[in-house]
Fold:
Amino acid sequence: MGVGRIGAVLTALGMLSVCAASGSGHVAKRETGAEAEGAEPWDGAVFRPPSALGAVGVARNPGTRRPGREEAVDLPVLLWWSPGLFPHFPGDSERIECARGACVASRDRRVRGDSRTRALLFYGTDFRASEAPLPRLAHQSWALLHEESPLNNFLLSHGPGIRLFNLTATFSRHSDYPLPLQWLPGTAYLRRAAPPLQQRAEWRRRGYAPLLYLQSHCDVPADRDRYVRELMRYIPVDSYGKCLQNRELPTPRLQDTATATTEDPELLAFLSRYKFHLALENAICDDYMTEKLWRPMHLGAVPVYRGSPSVRDWMPNNHSIIIIDDFESPQKLAEFIDFLDKNDEEYVKYLAYKQPGGITNQFLLDSLKHREWGVNDPLLPNYLNGFECFVCDHELARLDAEKAHAASPGDIPVPEPHIAQLSHMACPMPTPGFGSVEEIPENDRALSLARDHSICLRFLWPHSEKGRIHSCAEVP
Ligand SMILES: *[C@@H]1O[C@H](CO)[C@@H](O)[C@H](O)[C@H]1NC(C)=O
Ligand SMILES: *[C@@H]1O[C@H](CO)[C@@H](O)[C@H](O)[C@H]1NC(C)=O
Structure:
């Protein structure tokens, strides 16, 4: 799953094309060949075996003063411990220029023990505690990029798991480098005009349900299918994915997820025939919002949403989605959807944010404006490069603080450690999607999965301090 997932992440980030056009942007180019010749002769002081980092630190542009040896040697190194995400191409190291200065990004694990290697970068989905590089070196920060839900790694939703890290980039606004809007390209994406209501009325007359469900990942901690199954008793839902499927997509091409991805224009045109889209995240975590939420809005449908408990904070206005948990039962929700389905005037109020000036949530507007990374935006770095620079700047600042302390230990204290918090991946324990725990069969897969993970963690973590860290896979 790891590799496929990374591929998906890279595609989502537009990385694959960025890679092809490598060397563009602000990243200094290496002068291969010339480098080796230009390397300074060994001064006899210390013998260093050929470094895995090579001479990458001495990248320079023609015409600029050649950086002194000191400078090259001193550049902090950021090691991507998850090599699949290394956001540079080709080669294993690259000098990066960030706001505070330069660092070297590398994916060569041989530099792990180097005193210049100041940070290790991990991808959450790949992170296995049992494979973590231990013992941990005191001078190194651990940085975690985990934009996905805890479904992909429960470990990180537990205090001892997340607190292994110093710096985080997660979906949570509380993380050090927050990515809550990673699936929202911008306001224009939301503003796209909705199809005319008459068109949708026509599809309804031809037998389309008011509600769409398109889900193929069925046993998830959010336990969404149990809710949808109940809802289906009270209102028609057309379900095309593997979960609760009751209809087929119209053409073989669309049915094949290999040819028709979820961003396929023909598929999107088809989905936009529906007035309401069921949008249930695979896990419930504050600020965890995905394309399931934003895509229906792009298509001019109303999301019927369960996911981030703080989703209201991010909506374009206070009347743009239907939140499942506002309704006391699936039946009540069904009645409300039916009411909107029959009252165009009430329905279109949910699309008011598409009108000029309709996006009134200043927090959303500010967050989009101030984020320094883009979603498929050729003019902005993607969040991998953005986070890398964030870590670089943090390490340069930490180095400065350490130097200042060393220069006058009496006046300037040792820099405080920076440790990630549980709020960086705030996901409460999973609960049933509908009904109470007592009603759920003992062998239910969705819930037992979540339960097993947390039981495993609760038992193992207290013992994990002594030497190596165990992983849940080792539970008998
Ligand atoms: C939604 O916003 C409008 C205008 O900003 C305001 O008048 C209305 O009271 C708000 N409604 C709710 C439920 O907050
Ligand atoms: C990084 O976090 C660990 C705890 O996981 C802590 O012991 C260490 O001091 C922190 N390092 C820095 C540089 O903040």
Q: What stands out?
A: The pocket of 2-acetamido-2-deoxy-beta-D-glucopyranose (ligand 2) is lined by residues 141, 163-164, 166, 417-419 (CB under 6 Å). Residues 1-71, 455-476 have pLDDT under 50 and may be disordered.
